[in-house]
Amino acid sequence: MKRIYLILIVLIGITSCQKDLEKLNVDTKHPTKVPGNFLFANAQVALADQVATPNVNLNNWKLWAQYWTETTYTDESNYDVVTRDIASNNFRTYYRNILRDFLEAKNIIGEEVTAGDAEAAAKQNRILITDILMVYTYQRMVDMFGNVPYTEALDIDNISPVYDDAFTIYKDLINRLDTDLGGLDATNGSFGSDDLYFSGDVDMWKKFANTLKVKLGITLSSVDETLAKKTVELAYKKGFGPGENCELAYPGGINANPIFENLIQSGRHDYVATSTIIDIMNDLADPRLYPYFTLVDTSSNPAEVKLAYYGGDAGYSSAYTQYSHIPNTNTDAGERLSTDVDGSNVADETFPMVMLDYTEMCFYLSEAAERGYSVGGSAEDWYNKGITSSMNFWLGKHYNPTDVASMTAAYLANPDVAYSTAPGDWHQKIGIQAWLAFYYRGFVGYTSFRRLGYPEMHQVPSPAEGSGGTVPRRITYPIAEQTLNAASYAEAASAIGGDLLKTHIFWDK
After folding, report:
1. Of 390, 420, 362, nearest to 218 (Cα)?
2. Is 356 helix (H, G, I), strand (E, B) or coil?
3. 0.90 exceeded by the pTM?
4. Where does residue 125 rank: exposed (0-12), middle (13-18), buried (19+ CB within 10 A)?
5. Contacts of 484 (CB under 8 A, 6+ apart)
């Protein structure tokens, strides 16, 4: 019997040692499962970086919106998306780096065990907030490409997802926001400091979601007037108020604004302002020229200096030293006001990336009022609020509030700006001022141009094949999709009217 006990003790000892040894094989510094909060924050950064970056491999929207043009290599300003396979880079970034991380964050958070009602409510809030950002991302994808993978997207076991109808996706995105808003509980927390946009403020996420609903709704106005009107009218009162926005504040250093990384840190001089935007702003005596661009010496006489804002023609090679470019506090110190503060210029390393704001919503509501929607004010009211909001954001970084108010009032009194006397119909009035306000958010400005038709864009010298010789209406699908997902690609291309740069998105009437 003693022998049996001895054997059991030895076996127990061996088993215990094996378990201890197995623990040594666990790499505690590199867990196999990343926490949901970390994935959420990582996707937030990836999304903001993609929206902000001017890297021509990833984001050409500032060029297509004709805010900027290139100095030497002008392929992208002429709408070439093939040489650098820009479509594939966008697809990969949005699906793999952003949407997939958001989905995985939702799944991991969903598996968490909570203790008590407060934790359960906070967990639910985190899941719903993550879904709201997925809606934001999918809208951008649809507005870029048209039909895209949606119902079968993000499944790593399905390498050939179908492309869903873009209008159907839009309607589902609105339904998702309704569900998310219905479930958010502002009396409880969410991500806290792991939320890099709102620090876990659930009330602000509700405002963000409602502002996003306004954006989705107004974009549908030329397709489904009933749904558009209902969506906008139900959401606008609960959206952002004056001075409110959603942004990622870059701390600088290794986490700097991508515009700084590409324009300043790289030491490259790839972009200057276009004559498209400079000429309009000069004609309107727009005070935002100062924060938008630098002055340049336009004198042909070496003995004199004549400083002015001067832009290069879109698509043409434009020497960096001869045209206005994007300001930076450090590199353009001699041209900046003594009252400027660090981080106040677009190309500064800490300049924030605005994802959605009150300014944007105001211009949508101005349009909504013109369409007969009940939005608590006239088209002129919201138009003036949009311009004022934009002035406060840009000029407020350089001037005191009294001066900002004075410059704004003078601008609004300009007969070419005032809503009652500005040239053209409402499409032109709102279109030009919205486009000016959306500067540095290239895709938003480009989409505003597609929707409203203004301002008039300049003809580039060598428009890419398939663009119809004008500014593209969409970006083409990734080249790889033609072989790796051939059947779905062919069906999608046929459904939208051809995989061409000139093909219109469903809402682009």
Report:
1. 362
2. strand
3. yes
4. buried
5. 159, 160
Whose structure tokens read 């023609």? 313
CATH 1.25.40.390 assigned to domain 36-255+351-496? The reply is yes
* Amino acid present at 239: G
Q: Using one digit for the tens of pLDDT, what is the confidence trace for 201-258? A: 999 999 999 999 999 999 999 999 999 999 999 999 999 999 999 999 999 999 999 9
Task: Give yes or no for a contact between 232 and 365, defined as CB atoms under 8 angstroms apart.
Answer: yes
Please, which residues bridge with residue 390 across strands?
none
Q: Kindly report, residue by residue over 63-73, the tens digit of the pLDDT.
A: 999 999 999 99
262 phi/psi in degrees, rounded to 5: -85, -30
Domain boundaries in the chain? Answer: 36-255+351-496
The answer to whether 151 touches 164, Cβ cutoff 8 Å, is: yes
Nearest alpha carbon to residue 147 among 485, 399, 381, 452: 485
The pLDDT tens digits of the residues spanning 290-326 come to: 999 999 988 887 888 888 999 999 999 999 999 999 9
Q: Which of 56, 89, 93, 87 is nearest to 74 (CA)?
A: 56
Sequence letter at residue 342: D
